Amino acid sequence: MSEIRVDAIKTRAGAVPTANDLGLNIIGTIVQVQSGQLDTQLTLNTNKTTKTDTGLSVTITPKYSNSKLFVLSTGNTYSSVYNDNPLHYIIRTVSGTATSVAATDYITYNSSSSAGGIGGAYVQSVMDSAQSTAAHEYKIQIRSDTDGGAIYFNVNDTNNQGTSDEAQRSTIMVMEIAQ
């Protein structure tokens, strides 16, 4: 068996090598992953004009200012009336500046309630670009489409004509991808 032992590895200039010097920042590799989750329900009583924080967020501090940031959020939503849609937004905040980086104009739901409401799975993603190496917060905001009734994020089935008391979990994940 062979063995290599060294006291130090230095660049030609005599500096300690960075990950990029060693070829560890290869384009397309995942540099880091951060995630967040939410287990509580948000109820929003008809607000068509104002986006409301759901409580689901994650913060990542990019290692490289030219990285791509892939954001993925999953969960469930419900509207108390059939013709209203909970509209979802992914909001990025860097150094105090908030920007909407993804929005839904409508959502196709996989179920409807006999009481007239509609709800189902929520999945949203976006490929964003790092703005700097400062902390980036991504959060989900929601608003009503029509002001027709209450809308819910991270629905607890019992509160919405469901048959069980299952706790729901919404998630958000961001991956830094080297460029």
Description:
This protein has 179 residues and is mainly β. It has a single domain (30-177), classed as Jelly Rolls. Helix content is 0%, strand content 47%. The protein has no helices and 11 strands. It has strands at residues 30-38, 42-45, 52-60, 68-79, 86-94, 97-103, 111-112, 118-129, 136-144, 150-153, 170-177. Strands 1, 2, 4, 7, 8, 10 and 11 form a 7-stranded antiparallel sheet that branches. Strands 3-9-5-6 form a 4-stranded antiparallel sheet, with no helix packed on it. A hairpin with a 5-residue loop joins strand 7 (111-112) and strand 8. The chain is elongated, with a radius of gyration of 22 Å.
Number of domains: 1
Mean pLDDT: 84
Largest sheet: 7 strands, antiparallel
Number of helices: 0
Element string (H = helix, E = strand)? EEEEEEEEEEE
List the helices and strands and how they pair.
Elements: E1 30-38, E2 42-45, E3 52-60, E4 68-79, E5 86-94, E6 97-103, E7 111-112, E8 118-129, E9 136-144, E10 150-153, E11 170-177
Antiparallel strand pairs: 1-11, 2-10, 3-9, 4-8, 4-10, 4-11, 5-6, 5-9, 7-8
